[in-house]
Design brief:
Number of helices: 22
Order of helices and strands: HHHHHHHHHHHHHHHHHHHHHH
Mean pLDDT: 83
Distance between the termini: 34 Å
Radius of gyration: 22 Å
Largest sheet: none
Strand content: under 5%
Low-confidence stretches: 221-225
Length: 430
């Protein structure tokens, strides 16, 4: 273990403690952490500043503006009213409808953050109209967006399956292919578990009142008397749905998602759906700074070799064991923990090769273990560093760092059991 790695781990620990104590704003902690990592040489200038130009940072900021513009249109209230009529005034049935919508969309769109940005304004309007607390329901629907991503054999799973097949060919598993249907076969119970948790259990562990102010709600309250003209209203609705369709088909259009969201946000301002002052106010700058600092911390953990160190220790720990469930637990739990603090792509890039090398040495079938590595590295929602959807959710629900742990406590304990025991039974390594 190098000196730089030790320094990085110390800064990491201090940062987490500061987040949990919440004595100073979390964004300030994140910026101090980034500065300390740069000053100690754990990251260079490009690593420290990369978060400001990160695709997800731009995507997050611009999607807030697009979503805020959509909230101002008549269609949000119209959809809520229509859904309430359809469900005969039942908030729970209407809420279930949005949960199912989120679970479906996250299998077409590979970014849970984008899916959350689509459904969150609709759910927020439903909560406000029915006098239900946003804080009780924003976190559960965000977990659905994250946890259900890529389980159905649709666009997201097809893209991921191709990457895993490439990994398998690279590491000597010639003749084996990873089929998109494997995600559904190995994880379909998760769809039911997560949605039922979000419907019946999740809201009970969320605060009834926001811990932090919900800026978007306060701004909306100040603007309720301002109505859009019929023409601008229609333009706002059109911009929102064209933006969403463009995001769904971004690969076919050959345009990155951040650019599509940026154009959508600019059009919202250009056509007066939201003015420039409100557009800037709709962006939660504190959450963006928190995310930028989190990216710097994750980069430092990767660059200093913390991920490789843990990966090597894991490979040593599993050496020789032929117990499917022990292997499954190791290859799910450790990526699951790491990805709360590091970029999920970085965690997957470290552990998928380790998984394949381990399987090759043990003569094991890698399909189930790859599924668990993928699930563990993507199912992240306990920290703002886990996925860009979390800072967005924190802004919408008024959550702080400690509340995230309380909100996600039950589902965090349930998911490993479902994945490990079910997936390794369907796709055993031996």
């Amino acid at each position: 273990m190098t000196t730089q790695m030790i320094v990085c781990i110390v800064i990491f620990a201090i940062t987490l403690i500061s987040y949990m104590l919440n004595k100073i704003p979390m964004w300030l902690t994140a910026m101090f952490s980034m500065a300390a990592l740069f000053a100690t040489g754990c990251i260079d200038a490009s690593g420290a500043l990369a978060g400001f130009s990160n695709n997800n940072t731009i995507l997050m900021a611009t999607m807030f503006v697009v979503a805020a513009g959509f909230r101002r249109t008549s269609m949000v209230d119209g959809m809520c009213n229509g859904l309430m009529r359809l469900t005969h005034g039942s908030f729970r049935l209407a809420y279930l409808g949005y949960l199912l919508l989120a679970a479906l969309l996250t299998n077409f769109i590979a970014s849970p953050m984008v899916v959350y940005a689509i459904v969150s304004p609709l759910l927020a309007a439903l909560c406000d109209k029915t006098n239900n607390s946003r804080s009780m329901y924003m976190f559960p629907i965000m977990v659905v967006c994250v946890s259900c991503c890529g389980i159905l054999p649709l666009a997201t799973a097809i893209q991921q399956a191709g990457q895993f097949t490439g990994f398998m060919e690279t590491y000597g598993f010639n003749g084996m292919t990873f089929q998109p249907i494997y995600f559904f076969m190995g994880a379909w119970p998760v769809l039911f578990v997560v949605i039922l948790w979000a419907l019946f259990i999740g809201p009970k562990f969320c605060p009834k009142q926001p811990i932090l102010p919900i800026a978007a709600k306060e701004a909306a309250g100040q603007q309720t008397h301002q109505k859009l003209s019929p023409l601008v209203d229609k333009i706002g609705i059109t911009i929102f749905f064209v933006t969403i369709l463009a995001l769904v088909f971004s690969a076919q259009l050959g345009q990155p998602t951040w650019f599509i969201a940026l154009v959508g946000s600019l059009l919202m301002v250009l056509f007066g759906v939201t003015d420039q002052k409100n557009a800037l106010r709709d962006i939660p700058w504190d959450m963006l700074m928190l995310f930028v600092g989190a990216l710097a911390l994750g980069t430092a953990l990767t660059n200093t070799g913390a991920g490789e160190l843990i990966g090597n220790a894991l490979a040593t720990a599993v050496g020789g064991t032929h117990n499917n469930y022990i292997l499954g637990a190791l290859f799910f739990v450790i990526p699951f923990v790491l990805t709360q603090f590091m970029l999920n792509r970085a965690v997957a890039a470290v552990f998928v090769p380790i998984c394949l090398l381990t399987c090759a040495s043990l003569g094991a079938n890698p399909i189930g273990l790859i599924l668990l590595v993928n699930a563990g590295s993507l199912t992240a929602f306990l920290t703002p560093m886990a996925t860009p959807a979390v800072p967005m959710c924190m802004a919408d629900g008024g959550y702080d760092f400690k509340i995230l742990f309380k909100c996600g406590s039950v589902i965090t304990l349930v998911l490993p059991f479902v994945y490990i025991f079910y997936t390794m039974t369907v796709f055993p390594a031996f």
